[in-house]
Amino acid sequence: MKVRFKLFGRVFAFYCFKVRKAYGVKSGSQNHVLLMDFDNGNPIKFYTVRKNLMERFPNTPIIMYKTKHGFHAIVFKRFGFRRAVEEMVKTPFIDLNHVAIGISRGYWFLETPQPIPRLTRDVEFMRIERGEA
């Protein structure tokens, strides 16, 4: 909700919206772990991606969890920026917009409903608040 009014030649605006708390995970600045977003929550795609990641990164911790619009995957293996991009693009069904935004920023970011275990120092964790309409 937004309320605007003019008083003494000045415009005042007040906003009211629901805030939800969440956790943020950001890849490091030098080494990056793979933070991947998938927009389709189809269970077949979920298990296909899981199998693909487990074959490509054996003995590496991998976390996958469902989201509102699909699912996220985090591979806790360190990569340089260019190699991280290459590995993400090799992953089937990945959201290429998420990859492109990460390339333009220089890092990747995922919002999670619950805290993620700290398995490496190459990931920054934060609590965030998001406004909802």
In short:
The protein is built from 3 helices and 8 strands. The chain has 133 residues and is an alpha+beta fold.
Task: Summarize the SSE layout with pairings.
Blueprint: E1 2-7, E2 10-15, E3 18-27, E4 32-38, H1 43-56, E5 62-66, E6 71-79, H2 81-90, H3 96-105, E7 109-112, E8 123-132
Antiparallel strand pairs: 1-2, 3-7, 3-8, 4-6, 5-6
Description:
- The model has no long low-confidence stretch (mean pLDDT 85).
- The longest helix is centred in the middle third of the chain and has 14 residues, at 43-56.
- The protein has one domain.
- The protein has helices spanning 43-56, 81-90, 96-105, and strands at 2-7, 10-15, 18-27, 32-38, 62-66, 71-79, 109-112, 123-132.
- By secondary structure, the protein is an alpha+beta fold.
- The strands form three sheets. Strands 7-3-8 form a three-stranded antiparallel sheet, with no helix packed on it. It has a three-stranded antiparallel sheet with strand order 4-6-5.
Distance between the termini: 8 Å
What is the chain-wise order of helices and strands? Answer: EEEEHEEHHEE
Determine the number of helices (DSSP H or I, runs of at least 4 residues): 3
Helical residue percent band: 25-40%
The average pLDDT score comes to: 85
Poorly predicted parts:
none
Features:
single chain, 133 residues, alpha+beta, 3-stranded antiparallel sheet, 26% helix
